[in-house]
Amino acid sequence: MVRAWGQQVNYCNMSTRWLRLPIASLSSLNPPARPRYPIAFTLFEDTYPELSDKRVNEAMSVMDNGYLAQQYYARANYKIPLQGEREETFTFENYGWTEHMCRKWGQWFSSPDDLLVQFEKRGFCVTKT
Predict the structure, then answer these.
(1) Which of 16, 35, 67, 112 has a CA that sits 20 to 30 A from residue 59's CA?
(2) Looking at residue 110, what is its pLDDT?
(3) pLDDT tens per residue, range 95-104
(4) φ, ψ for residue 66 (rounded to 5)?
(5) 56 and 116 in one domain?
C-alpha cells in the first residue's frame, strides 16, 4: 500500500524518465477524503437531467451525513460566523455541508447577481418560479 505523496513512479516502462505523482490510498489519508456528491447526481452523458427537489435534497443529505459522520467541522472547530445580529442555532452536531455552503455563498456575496451571471455564461438559466 502506498502511504506517501510524491512517490516516484516508473511511468509506461520508461526506465530513464520518472514522474513525481501524488499517490495515496484512501485508507492512508489523514484526514480521510471528504464526502462527495453521489455519482448518479454528478455524472451525466450528453445532457443534464431535470433535477427535482427530492433528488437535490437526497444528494445534499449524502454530503451532510458524510461530513457529520466524519465530524469534519467539529474537528476543525470551524463554523462560518453569522453576520449581523442573527443568533447561532447550529451546533457541531448539526452544522453540515449544506449550512456551510449556505453561509459561504449567502453571506460572502451581497447580491446573487454575480453568481447568476456566472451560471448563465455556462448555460444555466436560473430563474425564480
Answers:
(1) 112
(2) 75
(3) 999 999 999 9
(4) -65, -45
(5) yes
